[in-house]
Each structure stands twice: as structure tokens, then as C-alpha cells.
Amino acid sequence: MRKYSILFFLLATIINSLAAQDSISSSKEKAVVYFMRNDPKALLITCDFYNGDRYIGGLRGLNFLKYECDAGGQLFWAAADNNDFLEMTLKSGETYIVDVEYRMGFYKRKIKLNVISEDSDDYDFLKAKILKKVPIQFSPLEIEAANNKRKDFISKSLAKYKELKAVEANTAVPVHLFNVEHETEQAKRNCPILLDYNFVDFPFSKNSIELSGALGLIKNPSMSQSLNVASSLNSLAREGFYRLMANNPSTKRFYKTAAFSVDILLYMPIPLTSGWMHEEFHRAILAKHGGNSYNEMNDFPITKSLISVLNVKDDDLVRLKSESPQDMVRMSEAGIEGEYLLANNINKNVFFYNSKSISFTPLIIALNSSMYVQMCSGKNIDKETDALVEAEGSNVNKRDLVGLDFLSYTYDLFRPDEPYQGRGIHPSGVGLNRYIKRSQLTSHELSYLKRQGFLQLINYLNPISFQFKSFTIGVGKNGDPIRANLYFNHWLTSFGYDISATALLKNNNHNYVFSVHNYANYDEWFPGIEIETYNYLLGENRLKKPISVSARVMGWLQPCNGLFYSRKASLGGMIEVKGYYPISKYFSPYISVTAKTNGWVAGNIYLESNLSGSFGLQAIF
């Protein structure tokens, strides 16, 4: 029966496709143009359409308008909060689909007319939608009355358009014309699969080799290495899955549901995913101080709700707390630090490449991470710790390195001078008692933890998480829209927390990132600023193979010595440069150099001043 079901499904799809070919075709003498609104956000606006100096109809919902006209050069335009003009050369007997794109700007909403080429992955999908509905109908009397009413508006709009064309002719700005080849290539560039891995990351790779020999480069990855692995897997799944489903109209209708399911699957406890990276960020702090461990994610623990870092020695934890109380705190919060970095990587890639794919991962990360922080202050949370202690018994190797992350985070944050041995002996009588319980926190400490749980809600202030990928704020010199977006983060840090606001800007093919930071410890706050250029093409139009460069500069005031109780500020900063040299259409080796002073930076394992360098390979498909 299943084979028959598949056969009937395929047969129905083929028949539907053939019927679509016939039902939207035009007469031999005329050309047919369909105006469609396929974006649900377009419901927020009303669009009126014109052919030259004639009103031809309007759209009020997710429907379409069918218009027959003579072949040859035609000027179509739409009017909403703005006017957008489109020049087309039509052929007799041909059918065209024009999609009305909705763009939400900071000051007002905008529309843009886009002709969907027949070789576009959207053409068959939109054609199938045309089959299912009857086009909006306007009587000749309605059309005539509307034209009389809009006579002055039409005249002024066309006059302004002619002025704009004259300006464009004098400034070499391209007129908004339909070009199938350009649109197709642009669509390809909009959906890259980015695979990135830095093979060595010095000086951290030295620690990795000392712990596990040459295999340590794989067994003990640095923060940037595990982040690159998780980001690459996400890009492969996100963009690859989009290409698989979006090319077929019969599957594209299920794309959003399928994309959500894939993101949920990639959030499950399996290797190389964001959860795996979460544990690797914990492990990296321990490895920096000479402690080895094992990531339980490598065992595919899909039935477990709490995943541990195993094979940790008590002596390594004692040494870590003694050498760096700040890193002891950071080890507890490092897991969600990595997850928010992954979310921000997705934000940047989706925004700067104007990706058509859908990713729910940033939202899933915000949901899970914020709930984890809030859960740790819950009244019944100690039952979770008691269950862990009982299950692990006297087997030290089964114990996690911190237990429930944010109870340990809060405990060590408020007690930088307490030796690790102060935790006492494990209830089994074997080893030290690593896990902190809610009952061990003072009312003041518990209040602080609850406040951090509330502040985690800031991470929901991310339009990209809700599929608002960019906002148009103007038009650049090259004729492309100037796009922007803004999102916020609440980070737990080695000295308290950081609230950051990040603005993304794309202007004339240049990518910029601007961030402001509000670092806070026990009762002081300290400002910081961050500026980044993302994939700037050095030598564009001059070199045969332009070098892609990403550079970041940071400046800050942070608590002196990175301590929770410090009332003094310490001035610091960081410079990071990464250069890619293309050796083929798809592959670009790169070198990255980072220099920083004392201070906390998300994703940089060193709280102390440091000079780091890495070598890797990026593949773009």
C-alpha cells in the first residue's frame, strides 16, 4: 500500500504540474502578467497596480491579479507606502509572474516588484498557487472610476519616475529592469552552504596536543574549532535542506514544518550539534588548565535529559579554582556562551547573504538556554541533583565537572576565594562534592540567579529569530537596498554578565557589525564597543582573486582583574583579523590573528592578555 500511495502522490503532482502549464497560459496575441503577494507580512499593506498611466487593479490579501496586455515594452508599477516601478519587455503568448515583496523598514513599510523567472525555484510553486484560486476581478466600471479618481496621483507619480530615470542615467545607477540571468545567479549567491574549520588554533592547540597527543587536535577542540563545526553542520542542514525542498513545489509547501523538525533534530544530544558544542566549551576551559575529560554527547545519549562531561579528576578542578577563580566561574557558563555565539553566527550569515532559508535555531537556543538558567533557581531543582548523585554513586568518572551549570556559576561567582575543597566530601564518601544545590545558596545569591534568569529574556529580542531577516532603510549608490537589523544578547560572564546590542548593516555590498556592551559585576557597570567588517573584498576590481577579509576591533572597560566584587575599571581591547585567499571557486584557506588585553570576550578562551593565531579552510557551495 505504501508504494501505491507514493505512486498516486507522484501521479497527482505530475497531473497538477501539467494542468498548471495549461491554466495560466495566455492567448497567442496577448501577454499575461500575474501580480501576486506570497509573503504573509504583505497582509499588512494594500497594493494598487498600474500599467503606465492606467490603474489596473489592487490586492488586499494573499491573492493575485491577472492582467492581459499587448506585447512589447510595458511599464508596471505598484503603489502602497511607496511606489515601485518595473519595466518589462513582453512577448506574445508568454505568461509572467510578478511577486510583490514586502520589506519592513525602520520608518515605513516598503514594497518591491520582482519578476519570477521560469527557472527560479519559486516559479512552479507560485504557478501551483495560481491554479488553486480565482484571480481578483474588477469590472470595467470600477477600473474607469478608479482611474478618474487617481488621475492627479498617476500624473505626479509618473513625473517623479521620469525624474528618477534621468538621475539614474546621469549617475550610472541601474534602472530596475527584469533580467532572468541576473536574478538566477543572485538567488544562488543568496543561499551559500558555508563549511569552515580551523585545523590549528595556537596557543590552545598546544594544550590539546599535551593532553592527547596529535589526536588532541580532534579530541580536545578549542572554542573556535567546536563553534566552526556546529556552525558548518547548521549551514549544511539549513541551506542544503532548503535547496532540496524549495526546488519542488510539491515539497515546498511543507518546507517550514520540515525546517523546524530538522532544527529540533539538530538540537538533540548527538555529536557535532549545538549541544555537543555546549559541552566542548565547558571542556575547553578545563583543558586550558591541563585537565582532560570526555564529552558524553559522543555516545549519542538521546534518551537523557542531562548530558555530562565525564572522566574529570577532582585534582584538575582543585587546580583550576586555585589558578583562576574567574575561569572556574566561566567554565559553568561557557556552554550557553557557545550556543549564543552559534545563534549570532546564524544571524550574520542569514542577514548578510540575504538567505531565503528558514532557521529556528536562534529561537530554540534562546528558549532552551533561558529556561535552563531559570530552572536552576526553581524550588524543586535539588531533586535533579539528588538523582544525579544517587545514579553516579562512588564512580568519580561518571560525575559531571560542574553539575547544574548555573548553580555552580552563582556559587563560585560569589566565592572567588573559597578553595574548591570547601565544597566538602561527596555523599558517597569518595571524592569531592562537585555539585552545588539550591539550598547551598544564600537568599542574596538566589536572588541574583533569579535576576539572571529574567535577564535571559533579552535574548528573545532578535527579529531574525522570528524570520524578520532585514529591514530596508534606504537605497545605496549601486541601486541595491541598504539593509539593517538589530538584536540583543544577555551573556553570563566570568565577572557577572554583559548586555549587548548588535546592529547589522549591509550597504553597497559592504557588511558591517556594530555592538555596544554593558558589562556588569556585583554593583558596577562598565561600557564597551565593538566594530566589525564582515567578508570585505580586498582588491575587488583590481585583483584577479580578491582577498576576503573580516576584521574586528573592540574597546572596553571591565572590572579590574575580572572579579565580581571589583569596583575599579580596567581599560582593554582586542583586534582580530582573518584573511581568506581563494584557491578555487569553492575553497579558501585562511589565517586568523587575534591580539587582546586582559578581559572577557565571548568565544575567546583567554581572560588574560593573549596573542592567538589559527589556520583553516572555508568551503562555500
Beta-strand residue percentage: 25-35%
Count the beta strands. 20
Low-confidence stretches: 1-23, 172-189
Number of DSSP helical runs: 17
Q: Give the distance, in angstroms, between the N- and C-terminal Cα atoms.
A: 39 Å
Q: Outline, from the CA principal axes?
A: elongated
Strand order of the largest sheet: 9-20-19-18-17-16-15-14-13-12
- As for the number of domains, it is 2
Radius of gyration: 29 Å
* Helix proportion range: 25-40%
Q: What is the structural class?
A: alpha+beta
> Major β-sheet, in short?
10 strands, antiparallel
Averaging pLDDT over every residue, what do you get?
87
Description:
The protein is 37% helix and 27% strand. The strands form 4 sheets. Strands 9-20-19-18-17-16-15-14-13-12 form a 10-stranded antiparallel β-sheet. It folds into 2 domains: 24-178, no CATH class; 195-620, no CATH class. The longest helix has 28 residues, at 325-352. The chain is built from 17 helices and 20 strands. The chain is of the alpha+beta class and 621 residues long. It has helices at 2-23, 123-132, 140-149, 151-171, 180-190, 204-212, 216-219, 223-246, 249-252, 255-265, 274-288, 314-323, 325-352, 361-375, 381-392, 405-414, 443-455; strands at 31-36, 47-51, 54-59, 64-69, 72-79, 83-90, 95-104, 109-116, 194-202, 294-295, 309-310, 471-475, 481-492, 497-507, 510-520, 525-538, 547-559, 569-580, 587-596, 610-620.
Give a quick set of tags describing it.
621 residues, 10-stranded antiparallel sheet, 4-stranded mixed sheet, 17 helices, 20 strands, 37% helix, elongated, disordered N terminus
